[in-house]
Amino acid sequence: MEFEPVIGLEIHAQLLTKSKIFCGCSTAFGASPNTHTCPVCLAMPGVLPVLNRDVVEFTIKMALATHCAIAPYSQFARKNYFYPDLPKGYQISQYELPLAVNGWVEIETEKGPKRIRIHRIHMEEDAGKLIHDEFQPISYVDLNRTGVPLIEIVSEPDIASSEEAAAYLKTIREILRYLEICDGNMEEGSFRCDANISLRPIGTQTLGVKTELKNMNSFRNVQRALDFEIRRQRALLERNEPVVQETRLWDAGRNVTQSMRSKEEAHDYRYFPDPDLVPVVVDENWVESVRAVLPELPDAKRERFIAEYNLPLYDAQVLTSSKALATYFETVVKAFPQPKAVSNWMMSELLKQLKRDDREIEVCPVPPENLAELLQLLDTGIISGKIAKTVFEEMYSSGKQAKTIVEEKGLTQMKDEGTIESTIDEVLAENPKEVELYRSGKEKLFGFFVGQVMRKTKGKANPQLVNDILRSKLGN
Predict the structure, then answer these.
(1) Residue ranges of the Asn/Gln amidotransferase domain (predicted)?
(2) Residue after which a domain boundary falls, among 409, 425, 451
């Protein structure tokens, strides 16, 4: 019997508000343990939470960007469970009445576009963090993260493979970053994902027993964890053994999932409306005021790049993968209006360097104006393509402008026909055997001669002149 996976993802995105969801404590990452706390987020007796309006507004933004229906009336609930890093003994979340429902996003798959439905988006507070001692059986509790605002984005079980899961995750992260409401940093925990996965016989509609996967801190680990779990569940089903409903942790070092605990049901949390918080009422005017300030979103920007700049789909997808990268591209194009040339240079040279150094475009040492200047020098023939790559590497490492580097190192392209002809004569004289072979029909040797000329001129000779004079000398 053949089985197919059925996957749903629960994404927790930490919102970029300055203060926590129910108090005025800072949300800044990396502070000394337990310094961003107060009686409210520490759950001291008698304190009362007060909702941060920005949290609601940020959630509305994400709901609109993912085509959700926004509830005019939503409510906070208490989710009861007991962890050492949860001071109240419950988490304030939303349950029966979330802020947003019934949305969708579109992902690209091998078979083309696919719509993944979003079941709900709701607001909640984060828990603290346990830090485990490496040398003794002691754990420390850091409550700085307690009360930091989150939105939970719950998909429908529409995802059919680990590749689709990664594509969906990247799409959600991309939208959050375009909206500037979450930085999407998986390593710091501001963008986290849990996966629910089951298998069922192909052709059936009944869902199988699901497991929940946690502890996946990268797109690659999400894919690897899902692939392992698909193999594990398939092996159990093929042996007619039951799949146990449980929560499993991903062990990246061993490339396996491990059982953590039996999976809780909703009733285990004993949800009930939080009596300290009034319901959230969102009227149409509020929704429309938020809609009016939404930025151009990734899908719309991709379509515009294709139409306005005549770029291929692949180029548009790469260049709009982040808002900052798209802005960089458009700034270069404004100064050097040759979009495809700019795209080629960004994807082949700029992004290669950034990936090598694990840098984001926001901290690129080559400002867009400097890249435009380099491309102008190349386009007007002042430097050759080979020299341009050398100059770019120097620009990236030193932060200098292209013109400065060209002048300092004397890299201006050689255009004097007499000098180039003299160099070609030297190359032909030094390689009589190759000349003879070329004239007897081995035309692939033409590239050899060009390479020798460029080597002698240290890449400065004008390529077109080299080609024209060489062809004339070689008799074709």
Answers:
(1) 327-474
(2) 409
